[in-house]
Amino acid sequence: MTQFITPACLMPSARYAFALALAGLGLTGMAFGDFALQWQPVPEGIPGRTLLAILTGGGLVILAGGLALRSAAPFAALVLVAVMAVWTLLLHLPRVVMNVPWAWLGFFEFVAIAGAALILASALWQGREGALARFTGPGVARIGLILFAVSTPFFGLSHLISVEGAARFVPGWLPFAEFWAVATGIGHAAVGLALLAGILTRLATALYGVMVASFVLTVHVPDLISDPARHQFWVMVFVALLIFAAVLTLAAHVWTQRPGLMGRVPAAAAQ
Hints:
Shape: globular
Helix content: over 70%
Strand content: under 5%
Number of domains: 1
Mean pLDDT: 88
Radius of gyration: 18 Å
Number of strands: 0
């Protein structure tokens, strides 16, 4: 029976989702002359901060264009890995060390995205030759999977530590907001544990993709529509889309590499 969803369509979709999210973040930064709030915690007092935000936004737009172009995508994916590593280690890790409240959540969000970027780079360099190809083999993808998997339980922990805070993001038309805050927190944790254990990984990533997509469509997009002049809402839409792109990348990788619950899908080159 022909599979409708295959790695051959998932990985390119993840690449385009990354491109759209990065372009959105870049254009938002250029339009507002500011960084992406707590997701790009550049100190307020640095000289030329507004200009730096605009230039950074422009760089993200260029990177997005590279990911969207099939010929440039393998190189752009390596740049994406570098960018995510810089954001994680230079912007977020120092805040964790200084014990800034909730800094650990932003740190693990970008660890997860960086892990997915490693998987994307490994997939795009598969079957290619050259020095760079030797550094993007299956071992790199495995590292990326582990980075993602150890991060998502911390997403869930944030829900369980502050159920009331997480419940505020549940749409008003959905009853039992605190139940959904706890349930989605457990879902965040469960997908990481499933990936680490290699149990029901296809089902886990499929359900996780649906959950994260629902956050984008039912929480962040309506917020943006309600107040399109608000910088925070633009940032949150594209950060959520960035996380969705990471989940989509994990799903493509898992469906290629593991038989799982939902049946084996033949591996295909991800271009």
